[in-house]
């Protein structure tokens, strides 16, 4: 390898990244054939992805395709992508998705209300969504960080989501003009760390809920993914870099991971030789 070439990400790191992917198809033209392709891709030569993320209409199909014993979770989206659906409609969608077999709910925070300063409305909506989502179902709250107009608004959105019981906070829907950014991810991860530090101080003997982080939107390469994973490890620690606490929402990342895995494996073999 020439001195000026970037070092390949290790085989073990690529496998780790694959295990953290929510393999996603939220295209407007998604159909049954696309869901079949998505579910088939969820089992890779390097192991399973964490989840498939699909429109609510395809949850039952994904459940059937993956099978009852699959380790791959089924995630779906609600109040998506605008965050402005009637709360009653969103609750109905959650009930139906859970009945169809969803394991995880990705809910878009009402970010336009947040931008209007309507904090009480946002917190109340999240309380309701948490009540509608059983404790054994993962609730990821999408902040749509690229639309929020300041670092403080991202921090406020993250804090509200955490305070109201989110299991994960997620950067983006992937439908906005600005999606995941390192700056937004840093704010969100720091908010998680601060929240947990404060909780630990207030109730040192109580078990802590460890809120996860999901980077989504525009993460297409292993180098992109590794940047966010390194950031999380720096702020929250390496013991949080598992699918219970960290995810990537992506559609094309997996293909780059598998391509890079072949290159990294070849490089390892050459080095060992």
Question: Quick gist of this model?
Answer:
It is built from ten helices and ten strands.
Furnish the topology, listing elements before pairings.
Elements: H1 11-18, E1 21-25, H2 32-41, E2 43-44, E3 47-48, E4 51-54, H3 59-66, E5 73-78, H4 87-100, E6 104-108, H5 111-115, H6 119-132, E7 138-142, H7 151-163, E8 168-170, H8 182-202, E9 212-216, H9 222-236, E10 246-250, H10 253-272
Parallel strand pairs: 1-4, 1-10, 4-5, 5-6, 6-7, 7-8, 8-9, 9-10
Antiparallel strand pairs: 2-3
Helix pairs in contact: 1-10, 2-3, 4-6, 7-8, 8-9
Q: How does this model look, in words?
A:
This protein has 273 residues and is of the alpha/beta class. The protein is 47% helix and 15% strand. The chain has ten helices and ten strands. It has helices at 11-18, 32-41, 59-66, 87-100, 111-115, 119-132, 151-163, 182-202, 222-236, 253-272, and strands spanning 21-25, 43-44, 47-48, 51-54, 73-78, 104-108, 138-142, 168-170, 212-216, 246-250. The strands form two sheets. It has an eight-stranded parallel beta barrel with strand order 1-4-5-6-7-8-9-10, surrounded by six helices. Strand 8 (168-170), helix 8 (182-202) and strand 9 form a beta-alpha-beta unit. The longest helix is centred in the last third of the chain and has 21 residues, at 182-202. The radius of gyration is 19 Å and the shape is globular. The two termini are 14 Å apart. Residues 269-273 have low confidence and may be disordered.
């Amino acid at each position: 390898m020439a001195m000026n070439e970037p070092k390949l990400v290790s085989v073990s790191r690529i496998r780790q990244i694959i295990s953290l992917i929510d393999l996603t198809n939220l295209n407007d033209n998604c159909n049954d054939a696309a869901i079949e392709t998505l579910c088939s891709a969820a089992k890779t030569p390097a192991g399973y992805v964490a989840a498939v993320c699909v429109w609510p209409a395809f949850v039952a199909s994904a459940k059937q395709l993956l099978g009852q014993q699959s380790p791959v979770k089924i995630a779906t989206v609600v109040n998506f992508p605008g965050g402005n659906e009637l709360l009653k409609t969103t609750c109905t969608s959650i009930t139906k998705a859970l009945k169809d077999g969803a394991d995880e709910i990705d809910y878009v925070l009402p970010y336009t209300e947040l931008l209007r300063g309507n904090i009480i409305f946002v917190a109340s909506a999240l309380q309701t969504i948490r009540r509608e989502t059983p404790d054994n179902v993962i609730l990821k709250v999408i902040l749509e960080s690229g639309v929020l107009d300041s670092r403080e608004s991202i921090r406020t959105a993250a804090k509200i989501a955490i305070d109201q019981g989110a299991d994960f906070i997620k950067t983006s829907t992937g439908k906005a003009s600005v999606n995941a950014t390192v700056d937004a991810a840093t704010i969100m991860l720091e908010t998680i760390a601060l929240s947990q530090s404060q909780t630990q101080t207030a109730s040192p003997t109580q078990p802590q809920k460890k809120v996860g982080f999901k980077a989504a939107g525009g993460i297409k390469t292993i180098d992109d993914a590794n940047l966010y994973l390194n950031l999380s490890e720096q702020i929250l620690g390496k013991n949080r870099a598992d699918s219970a606490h960290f995810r990537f929402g992506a559609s094309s990342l997996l293909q780059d991971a598998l391509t890079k895995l072949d290159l990294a494996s070849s490089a390892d073999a050459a080095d060992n030789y």
